[in-house]
Amino acid sequence: xxxxxxxxxxxxxxxxxxxxxxxxxxxxxxxxxxxxxxxxxxxxxxxxxxxxxxxxxxxxxxxxxxxxxxxxxxxxxxxxxxxxxxxxxxxxxxxxxxxxxxxxxxxxxxxxxxxxxxxxxxxxxxxxxxxxxxxxxxxxxxxxxxxxxxxxxxxxxxxxxxxxxxxxxxxxxxxxxxxxxxxxxxxxxxxxxxxxxxxxxxxxxx
Amino acid sequence: xxxxxxxxxxxxxxxxxxxxxxxxxxxxxxxxxxxxxxxxxxxxxxxxxxxxxxxxxxxxxxxxxxxxxxxxxxxxxxxxxxxxxxxxxxxxxxxxxxxxxxxxxxxxxxxxxxxxxxxxxxxxxxxxxxxxxxxxxxxxxxxxxxxxxxxxxxxxxxxxxxxxxxxxxxxxxxxxxxxxxxxxxxxxxxxxxxxxxxxxxxxxxxxxxxxxxxxxxxxxxxxxxxxxxxxxxxxxxxxxxxxxxxxxxxxxxxxxxxxxxxxxxxxxxxxxxxxxxxxxxxxxxxxxxxxxxxxxxxxxxxxxxxxxxxxxxxxxxxxxxxxxxxxxxxxxxxxxxxxxxxxxxxxxxxxxxxxxxxxxxxxxxxxxxxxxxxxxxxxxxxxxxxxxxxxxxxxxxxxxxxxxxxxxxxxxxxxxxxxxxxxxxxxxxxxxxxxxxxxxxxxxxxxxxxxxxxxxxxxxxxxxxxxxxxxxxxxxxxxxxxxxxxxxxxxxxxxxxxxxxxxxxxxxxxxxxxxxxxxxxxxxxxxxxxxxxxxxxxxxxxxxxxxxxxxxxxxxxxxxxxxxxxxxxxxxxxxxxx
Lengths: 206, 578
Known about the structure:
- Chain A: It catalyses: 2 pyruvate + H(+) = (2S)-2-acetolactate + CO2.
- The complex is a heterodimer.
- Chain A is α+β, with helices and mostly antiparallel strands.
- Chain A has helices at about 5-10, 30-35, 65-80, 105-110, 115-120, 140-150, 175-185, and strands spanning about 15-25, 45-50, 55-65, 85-90, 95-105, 125-130, 135-140, 160, 165-170.
- Chain A has two domains: about 5-95 and about 170-200, Alpha-Beta Plaits; about 95-160, Alpha-Beta Plaits.
- Classes of the chains: A alpha+beta, B alpha/beta.
């Protein structure tokens, strides 16, 4: 089988950022999660938190899959009664960040001036400084937060934690406005299921 | 309770009246037009059953023999009546017994509202007696589910449940109500049906430009082919569909859940699709130039091998569920929307045409199929009885006006292939899930949904033994259901596959049966068994003419195969006649 054909049948997997606006409802996380697990797809990162509109939540889900699979997943998610809207984007289409916390022994940090420089170079800031330990925080892409782990490891890194990814969609003029319309509008008259189809270039949706 | 009812009747809309959560639930069901409830009581749903004691006149509760029977009855009711089926079950095992029916209703888009009792809210998560995490168990097999722990939620939640179950692409909804919420009194301000949920859009917006594109494609077609599914029936768009087919002149074939949307003998109805469908519709799927799919979902049993399915054709797909578009088959022109709205718009834009040469091709294939398969199946002349001739003779006796409820397996394929259906909502079967044991309870529900019609449950000897306890429900409710068991003393469909693909290695398909007629008699149901050709017609007539339920067991040939057949992994064009 030629490479050409191969890519046709198995188009390349890549990271996709799925953004889901939902009602704040018990059990909805499970309803969304099983759409992935049923197809044996791993969720690489999941963040859910209140959006800018009260009572509406925003999920950021990261998966490594083909576009075709991600489109089908997104449609299944959007079909759920308590889901308002789903978008999916490649990494190029979003600005994204992860937050990381690093706990290191204060005495070593205080003694080693080079560590301080390294921290500064990596954009970290101290959140807590105690006699026994200091907690630094940094935000960035996976490689960036990973890099600081490597740097701090020789200096007695005690604990590390990283958040899920949050992502802002670059081409997203009017999401906030759109959400407010969802708030206001009566039965789906003006809020069209397929309205973004004409906008395919700018926004990925169903 | 009596007092509560009277007060409710008296009170003006604005006034509130103090009632229990259970009474509020029953009032909600009445306002939603519920006529019949299929259910089974138990500890955690007792307050609702206690309230039901005072609502006997208004709500007809049918006591089933197993919760699975209850939910299949609810499905049968929904299929023939077009209304939402309502099912009651208790917590724990009562609720888990609903799961098969929920999965069946989910995949076949059947509107249901299931109410399950649950342990007291303060016991949730303590492994209390008959406590099961019903919400999480049923999440993958419900369109929506919700746990009520406070009585004040009941009116709104029930109104949402009915709205979600019946609107858009219908489906099952489960509401789990904790015992304290059933008992708790609250100020009930009356029940308002729901018609809007902010995050839920049951119907996509109809986009005219796509209807125009679809019409252009259809108008330019030389060999167009229509595939229709249950969407036409669920959308109550049979008239609109018939108008479309007749104006377009396009040969049209059906999925088994779409059967009967237009009559079997309509000149443009070219037959059944899929693994055991008709010869022409399968072969010519791979010859048409424009494929118009209406309210169907390209199930693998319909498409066969997907990468060899209609690759030459441009595809127009009409569906109410946007997630069905491009799910299995790449669409050229998608038409989102309720086909009740999209079909008339499309009909207006297409040219009135006919395709005599193209239609003749279907006829050619049909005669080949008659010669190779159908003649031997429905007019065998000698030898043991065949399933096909039983269905053929049944057609003549019912004149195609009966509701045919089928179970799952060979008899199902034969019944769907050969049953004559004159009207819509005449075919009740477990399509997507393939649930053996479906037919007997579903037939009970089907009769409640269409009391004026003859309901015949066609069941195999295997499937009948999965839910035969529902004979008790038939006995107690006194309902008139005709039970036609096609007994080949095998789990026939699995045996057929073992014969064809596993070198006759018949692994656990030889199934013994009790004396079905004696069993029916034990339940006070009349019955008869027949194995001779000369007695078949009279026996079928005796069953149809009998006042009340009747069980007819027909001994059919043991090792008959259902053909044509698209073997698994083959393209529809590779359909076998033998």
